[in-house]
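Let's practice the habit of predicting before peeking. Look at the sequence and jot down your guess about where helices and strands might fall. Then scroll down.
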Amino acid sequence: MAIERELKLALPGDLPASRADALISHLDHLPGAQARGERHLINRYFDTPDLALARAKAALRLRYVAREGHPGQWLQTLKSVGEARNGLHVRHEWEQAVQGEALELAPLITACEIPATAALLRDEGAKVVAQFETNFLRRLWRYVAGDGTAVEIAFDRGDVAVQADGVRHTEPLIEVELELLDAPDDDLGAQAERILNALAQDLRAVLPELHSDDVSKAQRGYRLRQKVLGG
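Done guessing? Here is the structure:
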């Protein structure tokens, strides 16, 4: 089981391209940061018709990752109960490669170490259907601080989408995610907040529009779904 620790920073949907380019340029020249290229991510979120996973604060995702010069890959991810405070998200996460464009729930249930979440997926898994998508281009950097703490910096630009009656309803999605990859074992939680918040402060100096956001991409999708479909 992995514990995901990331700081999420949101940007206005109408952010001018020149402002986004200024942030990218800053990250390209940030000491300690190494550019890792761009990915195209297609993300489908699944739930039961009565949204049993959402009520349990769990998220089930099928993701396709494509990058230039490499074959695409399908991944399934289960995220369980966590917390978000001042943009810092801490939650359980299980991610596995799958053969194709379909969930493979049995190995995900086996991997899940939270009994209530595993039982929910076992009992309700046959009922899950795609509810919404988040699709975006992700530009990546790996940042290593002086003490060896490693952070993945992701700049995402795309949209959240819900399909209803043959119409695709969308809202813009522009975010920066700062995810802790590695830190001294004796102080992991404190390192996360110190390093991630220092990075966020540095980025806000370049782009003051950045603001801490406790809303996950999955929550954005559920909100758009409710707006489009009701209930």
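How did you do? The chain has one domain: 3-230.
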